[in-house]
Design goal:
InterPro entries: Calcineurin-like_PHP, DBR1_C, Dbr1_N, Metallo-depent_PP-like. By secondary structure, the protein is α/β, with parallel strands linked by helices. The chain has one domain: 4-Layer Sandwich (Purple Acid Phosphatase, chain A, domain 2). Helix content is 22%, strand content 12%. The protein contains 15 helices and 15 strands. Strands 4-5-3-2-1-12-14-15 form an eight-stranded mixed β-sheet. The longest helix is centred in the first third of the chain and has 15 residues.
Length: 536
């Protein structure tokens, strides 16, 4: 089957779907599935905009609300993960995944689903070591800290994914797995993004948690976004035994979703021709969620996941065959995910803007139903209970730290003691987020909805590449070609030629050497966003 993969969407759903329709008209290529690697921006109304960690001038309504309201429907099944520029209050309603609109499915903090027999997994957010070991304690209305920490990856999600034993076909993360740049055309990457050099040379670019998952899961494909640059790599994994067959991962990072940007890729994926066309639960993943339910933490307490180190009575939470069979029996062997999308917030009305709309903490009926069906903890319900118990500090956290039983420990050091949030490399595609000073008062920030009628994008496209299943990339040492040659060696075919004139990059200040005239960027990966002036 044909799978379309998109980079950072930034709310431009009309643009994505128009591009797919153009692809079908011009080349008779119709994808069966669309995957989006984060920064989806499922913004329903002005309150959602307040929960998106970007300066107020970049808070535009875009077009998702039309799909949420039912005015439009996604023409192709769309599955996405969260990034670091999201309506976090909306996605938080669905920690285990669910429908954000008809035909548009969010994978949750971490998740695995099936479509036509293809196993698709993903993890939302970006890595920050100072929040990695905490629980999911945040809830709206967010403050200057929690509006950012809400989208930081937590160790419990990585731990759950590491319990998977069966092969994964496709995996998505927003930020890149650390070190993946050593398996592609690193020279060309640094030519396009020279400001990555410091982090590449020090091997601190990307997520160490994602790198750990890449080594463990060894999926056939791994897709990422975040850094707003197209990059392909091919990673041959080491085998653990002579009996184990060699495995390799084809990695691809996508650009952001804007005209004249190479943001969309089409690949051919082997599938089960006898499988149905519905999105399905993955029985092994459900069994893992049930097994790890006791590890759920909604406090700011830091603790590591169970390990075989003598401190834990249990450390293996992988799903047994009996546990998987039990899930199948619970579902009567019908794994189809119910189409139970429900409106949980008022939809934006361009004729009646409500700039002072405040975000509220909502428990989504989809999550309630999912947790009741499988006996899981509703994270948002647990947070609400903690709020009702009252901490007296106005924070969504428990007054007293939960006792850590034999399943976890708060005293162990973090498995990751490094963080790239203090690096000062400068990316002209980024928006600066000053962690200490904040962007603005979140309670009074203004919103700036985009015009009700977005621009027409059907005139010129250089956004689509078609990549066959035989995608392969040689190593950097053997490869000095430019980016177009890289994609040619990967079996890609460009549908439309790029504009003959390159657009100059506008920097947010600084000299010709890229030295910024503003404060040191404390959270570079977290601050990446589309500098819209660049593409106007």
């Amino acid at each position: 089957m044909k799978v379309a993969v998109a980079g950072c969407c930034h709310g431009a759903l009309d643009k994505m779907y128009e591009t797919l329709e153009l692809l079908q008209r011009r080349h008779n290529v119709r994808p069966d599935l669309l995957l989006c690697c984060g920064d989806f921006q499922a913004v329903r109304n002005e309150a959602d905009l307040r929960c998106m960690a970007v300066p107020a001038k970049y808070r535009h309504m875009q077009t998702f609300y039309r799909y949420y309201s039912g005015e439009k429907k996604a023409p192709v099944l769309t599955v996405f993960i969260g990034g670091n520029h999201e309506a976090s209050n909306h996605l938080q309603e669905l920690p285990y995944g669910g429908w954000v609109a008809p035909n548009i499915y969010y994978l949750g903090y971490a998740g695995v689903v099936r479509f036509r027999g293809v196993r698709i997994g993903g993890i939302s957010g970006i890595f920050k070591s100072h929040d990695y070991r905490k629980g999911h304690f945040e809830c709206p209305p967010y403050n200057q800290q929690t509006i950012r920490s809400a989208y930081h990856v937590r160790n419990i999600e990585v731990f759950k994914l590491k319990q998977l034993k069966r092969p994964i076909d496709i995996f998505m993360s927003h930020d890149w797995p650390r070190s993946i740049y050593h398996y592609g055309n690193k020279k060309q990457l640094l030519k396009m993004k020279s400001f990555f050099r410091q982090e590449v040379e020090s091997n601190t670019l990307g997520s160490p948690a994602a790198s750990e998952l890449l080594q463990h899961l060894k999926p056939t494909y791994w897709f990422s976004a975040h850094l707003h640059v197209k990059f392909a790599a091919f990673m041959q994994h080491e085998t653990n035994s002579k009996e184990e067959l060699p495995k390799a991962t084809k990695f691809l990072a996508l650009d952001k979703c804007l005209p004249h940007r190479d943001f969309l890729q089409i690949i051919d994926v082997e599938h089960d021709p006898n499988a149905g066309d519905s999105l399905e639960y993955d029985a092994e993943w459900i069994a893992i969620l049930k097994a790890t339910n006791s590890l759920v933490n909604v406090t700011q307490s830091s603790w590591n996941m169970p390990e075989k180190n003598g401190l834990h009575a249990r450390w293996d939470y992988s799903a047994t065959e009996d546990a998987i069979k039990e899930v199948l029996e619970e579902l009567n062997h019908d794994l189809k995910i119910p189409c139970n999308f429900t409106l949980t917030a008022a939809c934006y009305d361009p004729n009646k803007p409500q700039k002072n709309m405040e975000p509220v903490h909502t428990i989504n009926p989809q999550t309630t139903e999912f947790c009741a069906q499988f006996g899981l903890t509703d994270i948002n319900d647990r947070i609400q209970q903690a709020k009702e118990e009252g901490s007296g500090r106005g924070e969504c956290e428990e007054e007293e730290e939960e006792e850590m039983d034999s399943t976890g420990s708060a005293e162990e050091p973090s498995e990751y003691n490094t963080d790239n949030s203090g690096l000062s490399s400068f990316n002209p595609d980024e928006i600066m987020l000053d962690e200490e000073g904040g962007d603005e008062d979140l309670s009074t920030c203004s919103v700036d909805p985009s015009p009700d009628h977005p621009p027409e994008f059907s005139t010129s496209f250089s956004d689509i590449r078609i990549m066959p299943d035989s995608m392969a990339v040689s190593s950097d040492d053997a490869m000095d070609s430019n980016n177009e040659e890289l994609e040619k060696s990967a079996g890609s075919k460009q549908v439309e030629e790029k504009s003959s004139t390159e657009r100059s990059l506008k920097r947010v200040g600084g000299d010709e050497n890229g030295n910024s005239g503003i404060k040191k960027i404390k959270r570079r990966n977290q601050a990446i966003y589309a500098a819209e002036d660049e593409d106007k």
